[in-house]
Specification:
Layout (H helix, E strand, L loop, with lengths): L1 H17 L21 E3 L6 E3 L4 E3 L2 E3 L7
Antiparallel strand pairs: 1-2, 3-4
């Protein structure tokens, strides 16, 4: 019985590694995506586009400068 369990676990691990070793994530929303540093986002106040790297993020919203932040 224990030998069958070990063989099943090894076969499962090999199948897992064969398909890239990635499991689906359940904690993140499907609409939520990671933005690269060079992706353009719109300022909430003046609607100017800036890169994520240059933007200021306040409460999940993007702003282009200190003058636009609330």
């Amino acid at each position: 019985m224990i030998l069958k369990l070990i063989v099943f676990a090894v076969v499962g691990l090999l199948i897992y590694k064969f398909f890239g070793g990635k499991l689906p994530t359940f904690g993140k929303s499907p609409h939520e995506k990671k933005l690269d540093e060079d992706t353009l986002v719109e300022c909430e106040t003046c609607h100017t586009y800036v890169t994520v790297k240059e933007s200021i993020i306040v409460n999940g919203k993007y702003y282009c400068s200190e003058e636009c932040t609330p």
